[in-house]
Amino acid sequence: MREDIKRLLLHLIAPTRCPVCGDFIRPDERFCPECEAELTVWNGEHTIPGADSFTAAYEYNDAVKPAVMLLKNGIADNADYALGGALHDRLKENGIIENADVILPVPMTQEAVSERGFNQAVLICRRIGKLSGLPVSECLEKQTETLPQKTLNKAQRAVNLRDAFTVTDPDTVKGSRILLVDDVCTTGSTLAELTWQLKFHGAKAVYCAACCKTPPVRDDEELPDNG
């Protein structure tokens, strides 16, 4: 209730806009009706090696791309509210929310966070946390900057991420059922590497999730640009 009042007050100062087209919308809306009708709900299947499940809210395409770009570029303008809320709803439908103990965002390096000013996965996790009551922990750390996964083939992607991540608080992970969240999942290599780390440190279960999942591509195809 407190958040609803705060959001309404902010709406009076700076009216809420659709994160896709920029049109004004009500503070309780995620997208304008026209843009929401164009979004493609993700109903595919995707396996993250070692993970217990994978869930996404939308298929990544031109209809949702503007909202993702707003989120990545720090012009949230309802993007974290909309995308995080949509992912929460899918996770709740799938029974993941009630089974998870803690939410972990996919990390960025400290240099990348300093340059951008934030980690968009953290914003998504905080939104899910507010809606679900689950705690959010930033106990995953990315130690080294890696090459963009979209520029690499399957074998290179695995090597690229090797030793890139670490768990800074093993006690949070051990015995916990973890909801691991990113904004966009392309190949799933990052989620797979983090899942391995979490299981190595004793995680009871790892449920992977992303606001958007790109369409499947062959290993020799160019991966879509998601920023």
Features:
four-stranded parallel beta sheet, alpha/beta, 15% strand, 6 strands, Rossmann fold, 227 residues, two-stranded antiparallel ribbon, globular
Radius of gyration: 17 Å
Helix count, per DSSP?
10
- The helix/strand order is HHEHHHEHHEHEHEHE
Q: What is the CATH topology?
A: Rossmann fold
Unreliably modeled segments: none
- Main sheet summary: 4 strands, parallel
How many β-strands, per DSSP? 6
The CATH class name reads Alpha Beta
Could you say which structural class the secondary elements and strand pairing correspond to? alpha/beta
Overall mean pLDDT stands at 88
Give a structural overview:
- The chain has one domain: Rossmann fold.
- Helix content is 39%, strand content 15%.
- The chain has helices at 2-13, 33-38, 65-72, 79-93, 96-99, 110-116, 120-132, 154-160, 170-173, 189-200; strands at residues 53-59, 102-105, 140-142, 165-167, 177-185, 205-213.
- α4 (79-93) crosses α7 (120-132).
Write a brief caption for the model:
This protein has 227 residues and is of the alpha/beta class. It has helices at residues 2-13, 33-38, 65-72, 79-93, 96-99, 110-116, 120-132, 154-160, 170-173, 189-200; strands at residues 53-59, 102-105, 140-142, 165-167, 177-185, 205-213.
Question: How are the elements arranged and paired?
Answer:
Elements: H1 2-13, H2 33-38, E1 53-59, H3 65-72, H4 79-93, H5 96-99, E2 102-105, H6 110-116, H7 120-132, E3 140-142, H8 154-160, E4 165-167, H9 170-173, E5 177-185, H10 189-200, E6 205-213
Parallel strand pairs: 1-6, 2-5, 5-6
Antiparallel strand pairs: 3-4
Helix pairs in contact: 4-7
